[in-house]
């Protein structure tokens, strides 16, 4: 066999061997399980490149490991970390659920390396994956160079940079950007800060002035750009205080303070030692820069003072201290008043100077001004701490002040006066001789308010009364007020008005109320609550004052559209105030119009309308305002409809059944009309219905009146005119009849002349016995009724009051004394005639005569009536 063939054979044997080995190996191999790689945006797989926010709560399931085994064997999952590193996650071996077990902090560690494994029991596969911790806005800006104190010369030019504030926020993105703001306690700050660089400058147009304000306190606020933290957007900030000290520069000429100056030398005083230069008085010199000779002695090195006239060689001045000294004994003084000119100028600027006049008077005795004393000796500042609003009339117990003037007599008499804000306090006594205990009384308690001012400063003045020097002394009283709970929370408004749509879900925000309490500390904390008959559907956040609907509340404007209740703001001490909340439920168009089923079949008389009606249950306009329209009419459209009222009428040209029958061949004259009712809401809802209308004609009446009324249907004014005419005629007839009746009554009641009175000659009177006028034996016989005459008188008024006697009358009573003859006057209507028989039984005249009165005698009653009648007749005769 040749070589090529040998090599080919060997290669064939080798290939067969490997082929058999491969088949054997394939039959016995178990493949390893593996993870699914679903990418970084999936929540299951091998956890590679997982992004996890640092504000994820501990215990949250953050991922699910997911893999498989090629042979379908069950798999288990595992998780390990680098030795010594913190374990942040835990995995469930069967489900693969990965849980966060430690808090994350991106600023401490922004990448976590994890070894995840999957095993089918025989094979185990481990992968190293990285979990990236994403940033949340949980860090505040931190100042690098604050708080700090800066010295700035008062002559610094406006606009110049005086400081650069630096703050760092370790968050990333917008949460790591820092902007700067100023929060100044002063009314108008002189400084401005660049919001981005933090450079603090003096505002353009502003200057610093040491004499007005030596120190400025500025609060700098650093805010980040905001970011998401635990699902909510929040902005975090920090603040720090920058103290700016204004450095004085010599920029104004000196000025004397407290001018004019007066000095006194008492001639009885002890001699002044020339060698020791004993001080007689001090001058106070200052500039607008604020340096003072006596209170800040070292500043006097900047000023030179000297006397240039009026001293006469007996006075000298210390050029640096401003002290004027007496060089001779007081007894050697030859003048009573010395006017000394003193000049002062700064050493740096000789051209800037000031001149003042010092008047020194040589007097006797009064050489002690009033002096205030405390517990430990002379004192000019008294401090007290007390609660605000003390009772009026109470004295301030913490102040122990004594005032004294060592002089005698009138030189020791002085006034006390308290000067300060308002009239809060009053001092007693007001006039003192030599010495007194000073008492300060509360006069206006309401003005002593911690919320207005936390400390009060008063000046206590003692000024001599009867001395030419008017020596005085001052003392400062500083009162530090402590806060009390004297204010109730106050709402920003007495009432709140809110509107919320109906069908709003439970827990919807309604309105936010705000109340503030100016008290400090816990007394200024406000809690909110609501109550009232209308508060059942609402609740309020106790801290924020935001009012919500109850989670279960269902608002329906058709059921109730107005609610009102009270909200209460209360502090921790129980003081509260109330505000009323008015809530209006806004109606939504959630109901369709509905037709009245009773109005869908109508009978129409020609000339008269029929009306259909639909109701919309919405609560407000325009949601419940309905418009009517005819969509279709069968067989023909012969109707018009009022869009507002729903009245259906025949078209104007249809005035009889003949026209209707000419329009259609239907004998029953019944129309089917499709009517639509549509509301005006948004969106608009509509409903259609079919109205059956049976057309008929009214029953014809006969007669001219019926004809006239039928014609009047077309002209209603004609019918109205007829009715008005009938009413006017009836009124005229009534007035005429009433006038006739009135005239007749007036005529019947008129008093006519008494023509029926018959005058007769008087007969001689007889002596009658009125004791027993009717005894028969007294007259010697019976009464006689012979020759009885009844004068006839016409019954003029036909009232039947006069009767004519045609028969014999019974015996009359005896005659009464004769009355005087009647006056010729008118006869009164209704007058009745009467007769009285005489004793001799003769018939007397009917002329009225006076009779003796008796209580039970009818004759007496008639006489009284007759007398009244005569008087009335006499009065009438006098008129005519």
TrEMBL record:
**In what ranges is there compositional bias, type Basic and acidic residues?**
766-787
Q: One GO CC annotation, please?
A: plasma membrane
Give the UniProt subcellular location, in the record's own words.
Membrane
What is any one GO biological process for this UniProt entry? homophilic cell adhesion via plasma membrane adhesion molecules
Residues passing through the membrane, by range:
719-742
Q: Name one Pfam family in it.
A: Cadherin
- Chief site of localization: membrane
**PANTHER family noted in UniProt:** DESMOGLEIN FAMILY MEMBER (PTHR24025), NEURAL-CADHERIN (PTHR24025:SF23)
Q: What is this protein called?
A: Photoreceptor cadherin
Q: Which organism is it from?
A: Cyprinus carpio (Common carp)
